[in-house]
Write a structure and sequence with these properties.
Blueprint: H1 2-23, E1 27-33, H2 38-51, E2 55-61, H3 67-76, E3 83-87, H4 91-96, H5 104-107, E4 121-122, E5 125-126, E6 129-135, E7 137-141, H6 142-147, H7 159-170, E8 179-182, H8 188-199, H9 217-228, E9 233-236, H10 238-246, E10 252-255, H11 259-266, E11 272-275, E12 291-298, H12 305-315, H13 318-328, E13 332-333, H14 342-346, H15 348-357, H16 369-385, H17 390-409, H18 417-442, H19 460-487, H20 505-512, H21 514-545, H22 552-564, H23 567-577, H24 583-590, H25 607-632, H26 636-644, H27 649-660, H28 662-677, H29 681-686, H30 698-708, H31 712-737, H32 741-746
Parallel strand pairs: 1-2, 1-3, 8-9
Antiparallel strand pairs: 3-12, 4-5, 6-12, 6-13, 7-10, 7-11
Helix pairs in contact: 8-9, 8-16, 10-11, 16-17, 20-31, 21-25, 21-28, 21-30, 22-25, 28-31, 30-31
Length: 747
């Protein structure tokens, strides 16, 4: 009994601290954000934790380049944060899937204290609370104003003044541009143009978002004026425009707050100012601009919503917000009281941003805004890169946006059941045929008649040692394959996990889509244009390297270096090489060859060939090493015999070298074909599918469908269509390039 009492006393003493510790364990809140610097946000979180010792915040910094994709992936994987920063054009997409918490009641006491609430709402419900804001203002070069005889303290206030100012600055020299127009990318073109339309009273959609008003007279007037700026403007991407403006070669550009710290870093001597965007006429229109708002939202998966809201209330307080504004100087607060803050009295440039924010317009809150904004950017590209008349461009893009709105309003239904069953039966028979075909080619030969293999017991140790690989293969190979195949027949909301079987409708939608057909054409052009050049160049270099030449090892390493370098890095380097002031145009100018207009990656006819050239340069080294290994395995006796028979160098190559390396050639061609049909990182980095979809490939189209349009069903259907295409090309290549029977017997 004494021993038992002692044991129970020890157990009690052991469990008591554990129970007390569990009772005092702090609530954990996961916060993901993009706008504030990591060190600054970390300091604010530490202050919050000091004020709220019962709450522990796990903070993660995201990047604007990949933050959206990471948020989408985390929600789909069931590992979403509790509080997340969302851009103003993201809220509707997430709210429509039902993953965001309704914050209408929580936000009601704050309605009179903040602006840009329209950025946080969807269908009359608030799903976020405004935190930071960004807008666009007119940057102008004071020195160029003075040289053109203009008042450096008076930026243009109307459209006509803007046009006259751009004309006078452009007249200074051929290398000086009066204005800058963004093109060839997803976001900047429409964000620069829409303020002209908004200031002219234009609305993109009607109130119930069922019809677009893009072809209205207000839009047409704005686009006609915008086009009139073209002869005096540089048409290029935003990053290139920012660089040239800092170099003093652009008189005016419409840009955001990131340029305030960027321009002094690039050129401390540049004297520049900022002003409000111009209105249509002195007594007509408004000084509208694009309103970008960062909002804090709470996910429905949050286990401690009260603690999450307490964190949001702390972060949106004016003290914390102004700390970020004063340190970073590239954002403005959404609080109305900030208008009287001393910081903006001593920083007039930032005050212009704050004032412009209060007259800015937020884009419509629509779940398919990512696709709508793409069509708006295509509108600008058509006018400035293809010289399409504004009336025609507006009519075409209005029709495209109308289809998007109708697709959102009309739920997807099951396609014809008879057609679905027929296609499923065809796929089943195709699978059985391929299985038997592969089993016949890859399986062991049938035993001879009268021969019987002696019985043997199965060695279970083999299965044991294979089990780690087999389990991983099932989890990360077979399961995603089966899951995506099922998804291709469903209307699947992968954020909320809702399934709805629609038969073959996803495949029908994919094949009927103009974007898919264009992406398919671009992909075929890319594959057929790169594979022959890559193989020929690799084989040519391999033959040279197989000779006895000095420094052969260095040449081999040099050819393989681009292969060992990240594709993203190579693509980024070539983006600068293809820039208007890049090395490629510099070489052309020395040769007195006119460069493409407006640039390599903005010309719809040259953008994809430019990427193809980069792809051949970056990948042929890998196949060169394969061919070198194959050439070194060829017996010298074959060449000696051919030489004795009087064969010249070309005959020895054609009759000896090629037949001997045919297996390696087959492998290289098939691998290069698969890679070419799956090209993505080059497109993602260099052009984003533009201009005008001229570089959009199947995989990039799949990525846009799945992760931006949230249409994972159609994206999965596109993936399996691509699989069938690649399989067909691979089988064709295997039949054409397979070694002959005579070679197989010799081998």
């Amino acid at each position: 009994m004494r021993t038992m009492r002692l044991l129970w006393a020890l157990v009690f003493l052991f469990l008591l601290p554990a129970k007390a510790w569990a009772a005092q364990e702090p609530v954990k809140i996961r916060l993901w954000q993009l706008s504030a610097a990591e060190e600054l946000m970390g300091e604010q979180i530490r202050r919050f934790e000091d004020l709220h010792p019962g709450i522990k915040v796990e903070f993660q910094q995201l990047t604007w380049e990949h933050g959206y994709d990471k948020i989408v992936t985390s929600i789909a994987a069931g590992n979403a944060p509790d509080v997340v920063e969302l851009g103003s054009t993201w809220v509707a997409s997430f709210a429509a899937t039902g993953v965001l918490e309704d914050l209408t009641e929580v936000a009601e006491p704050l309605l009179d204290e903040h602006i840009l609430w329209e950025s946080a709402q969807y269908q009359g419900t608030l799903y976020g609370i405004p935190w930071l804001a960004g807008t666009r203002v007119l940057f102008y070069n004071r020195d160029l104003f003075a040289q053109a005889g203009l008042d450096p303290e008076k930026p243009p206030g109307t459209w006509m003044e803007l046009l006259d100012t751009a004309r006078r600055i452009h007249a200074l020299s051929e290398d000086t541009y009066g204005f800058a127009i963004f093109a060839g990318e997803s976001y900047a073109p429409w964000q620069e143009f829409m303020p002209f339309a908004w200031s002219n009273g234009a609305q993109l959609m009607n109130r119930d978002q069922q019809k677009t008003l893009l072809d209205s007279p207000e839009f047409l007037d704005a686009l006609r004026f915008y086009r009139s700026l073209g002869p005096y403007s540089l048409v290029d991407r935003q990053a290139q425009v920012n660089t040239l403006f800092a170099e003093g070669r652009i008189g005016m550009q419409i840009s955001g707050g990131w340029n305030l710290p960027l321009i002094p870093r690039l050129n401390p001597q540049l004297d520049f100012g900022v002003g409000m965007l111009p209105r249509p006429a002195p007594n007509r229109g408004t000084q509208a601009s694009f309103a970008g708002c960062e909002v804090f939202s709470v996910l429905k998966s949050c286990k401690h919503p009260e603690a999450a809201l307490e964190l949001i209330r702390f972060l949106i307080d004016e003290k914390q917000v102004m700390e970020i504004v004063e340190v970073q100087q590239n954002v403005v607060p959404t609080t109305l009281s900030a208008l009287k803050h001393p910081f903006f009295e001593t920083h007039p440039l930032h005050r212009h941003f704050l004032l412009q924010t209060h007259s800015a317009v937020a884009p419509p809150s629509h779940p398919r805004w990512s696709r709508i904004q793409h069509e708006l950017s295509v509108l600008i590209d058509k006018v400035f890169l293809k010289s399409v008349e504004p009336e025609v461009a507006l009519r075409e893009q209005a029709q495209a946006i109308e289809e998007i709105l109708q697709r959102q309003a009309t739920p997807k239904t099951w396609a014809d059941p008879g057609t679905s069953v027929a296609v499923l039966l065809f796929l089943l028979l195709l699978g059985v045929y391929l299985h038997r075909k592969l089993a016949r080619q890859l399986g062991a030969p049938f035993p001879a008649e009268g021969y019987s293999e002696p019985g043997r017991s199965f060695d279970y140790s083999t299965l044991f040692f294979l089990s780690p690989w087999f389990v991983l293969f099932l989890l990360f190979g077979i399961y995603p394959l089966v899951h995506s195949f099922l998804v291709s027949f469903c209307d699947y909301d992968f954020l909320s996990g809702r399934f709805s079987f629609v038969g073959l409708q996803n495949y029908v939608d994919a094949i009927r889509s103009a974007q898919f057909l264009k992406a398919l054409g671009n992909t075929l052009f890319f594959a057929l244009g790169t594979i022959p050049f890559t193989m020929s160049l690799a084989l040519f270099c391999a033959v040279l390297l197989s000779q006895r030449i000095p420094l052969r090892g260095i040449f081999q390493a040099g050819l393989f270096l681009p292969v060992a370098t990240s594709v993203i890095v190579v693509a980024t380097i070539f983006t600068y090489l293809y820039a208007p002031d890049g090395m490629v145009n510099g070489i052309l100018s020395r040769l007195r060859i006119p460069p493409p207009d407006p640039s390599w990656l903005l010309n719809p006819k040259l953008a994809l060939p430019a990427i193809m050239f980069m792809n051949v340069w970056a990948s042929f080294g890998y196949y060169t090493i394969l061919f070198v290994a194959g050439l070194q395995s060829i017996p010298n006796t074959l060449y000696e015999a051919a030489h004795i028979d009087g064969a010249n160098a070309w005959q020895r190559f054609w009759n000896v070298t090629l037949p001997q390396i045919k297996p390696i050639l087959l492998f290289a061609v098939v691998v290069n074909t698969i890679y070419s049909f799956q090209v993505f990182p080059e497109i993602f980095t260099m052009t984003g599918g533009g201009p005008l979809g001229s570089t959009s490939t199947i995989v990039y189209h799949l990525y846009e469908l799945g992760f931006h349009d949230f249409d994972m069903g159609v994206a999965s259907a596109v993936a399996y269509i691509l699989f069938i295409i690649v399989m067909g090309f691979s089988i064709l290549q295997m039949r054409l390039l397979r070694p002959s029977e005579a070679y197989s017997e010799e081998a």
